[in-house]
Amino acid sequence: MGKQFLEITEKEEVEKLIADLCVKLAKKIAAEKQIVKIEEALGRIASTDIFSPRNIPPFDRSTMDGYAVVASDTFYADENNPSTLIIKGYIQAGESPSQSECLEKGYCIGIATGAPIPKGANAVVKVENAQEYRDKVKIYKPVAPAENIMPAGSDIKQGEKILRDGTILTPKETGVLAACGIYEVFVRKKPSVTIISTGNELVAPGEDLKPGKIYDVNAQTLRDSVIGCGCVPLFLGIVPDSLEEISTKLKESLATGADVIIITGGTSAGVGDVLPTAIEGLGEIIVHGVDIKPGKPFVLGMVQEKPIFGLPGNPTSALISFNLFVNPLLRAISGNHSHNREEVKRRIRAKAALRIFSEHGRNEYVLVKLAKKEQTPKEGFVYPILSGSGAITTLSNADGYIFVEKGKGIIEEGEEVEVELLHHLFTPPY
């Protein structure tokens, strides 16, 4: 006989348990580092402060096409009385000027944007302020010392901190690393999450669908959700509702070294629901049942200091349970609970387009569709999706969900509500 719900846990208590787990596991996992090449570093999190090994730019460089000069040679130049200098040569970007020669007064060197400033020169005259003839050039506008020159280290100095520990590496960060010549970087290890589906009725997409069977939805939605939290999913397959086989699969999951285990199905009270028994055979059950709908048959256990989340088999219930309880933990241990993730718009305000009823005495999450009314195009409205949590159309049609606290019962037409958007679950991090 499956384990019955003897003590339903309050939602707020479960959230506190998860928050405590976040602190404990995040410290442990943040200490685990690995080194990756920068072409593989996008979306990863720096595990140390990073310092530039060199000046950027590494040499004084011209910011204009023109002529490298001794600035004092141009001080009195104007349209009517230009300064005339002898051209000593030309330097293109990527070329290295002779270090044995020093530019003397009365001479100049043609120079391209980005090219290194030759020894002795201390300014660059723009090409449009000069006129070249034979081996000489007339300068029609004076320049001050350092004008049109970017000094070595003016962008980034050698030894300067360019990235802080905990920074999510976006294209701008990887660009800075490349500019400094850094091709490998220490990053936090991505937490790994094993996913197991249970159910005698389940088959994998692509297999023949025999009578009485259905395709496994949760494996795919949870894999994508885990990736969206900055973690690495490992799907271990489908197992039947058998205590022995579920226990074996749990041991296999532990053997992978995964940081978190997610199992869907087998959590409700009933003859075939053996997951809680399997968890207790290896560790302990902390939560078995939460006062929410959908998602009441939620299980949280601990085995070898690793959290095991048992989610309902219904796709909608599984996704809401994941969002409420698993998502915060995965984001915390992966480091994606802050920084750029805060830019993702997760919640919006809207109005109920009609009366919405909820189950009395139970916290309820109502899936909704967002829409606008023709007469008030600037306002958003929500319509409840009335199909059950096991219907695939419930999930595909929903834009988000609203929370109806137990005791409220009814949300009146026109009442403002907060909508938790579903799409942010599937936004890859960085």
Task: Give a description of the structure.
Helices cover 20% and strands 31% of the residues. It is an alpha/beta fold. It has 4 domains: 170 residues, 3-Layer(aba) Sandwich (Molybdenum Cofactor Biosythetic Enzyme, Chain A), CATH 3.40.980; 43 residues, Alpha-Beta Complex (Molybdopterin biosynthesis moea protein, domain 2), CATH 3.90.105.10; 90 residues, Beta Complex (Molybdopterin biosynthesis moeA protein, domain 3), CATH 2.170.190; 78 residues, Beta Barrel (Beta-clip). The longest helix has 20 residues. The two termini are 46 Å apart.
Q: Assess the beta-strand content as a share of residues.
A: 25-35%
- CATH architectural group of the largest domain: 3-Layer(aba) Sandwich
Which secondary-structure class do the elements indicate? Answer: alpha/beta
Shape: elongated
CATH topology of the largest domain: Molybdenum Cofactor Biosythetic Enzyme, Chain A
C-alpha termini separation: 46 Å
User: Structurally, how many domains make up the residues?
Assistant: 4
CATH class of the largest domain: Alpha Beta
Query: How many DSSP-defined strands?
Result: 28
Assigned CATH superfamily of the largest domain:
MoaB/Mog-like domain
**Count the helices. How many?**
7
Enumerate the strands of the largest sheet in spatial order, edge to edge or round the barrel.
7-4-6-5-9-8
The share of residues in helices is: 10-25%
Round the mean pLDDT to the nearest integer and report it.
87
Poorly predicted parts: 1-6, 338-344, 426-430
Largest sheet properties: 6 strands, mixed
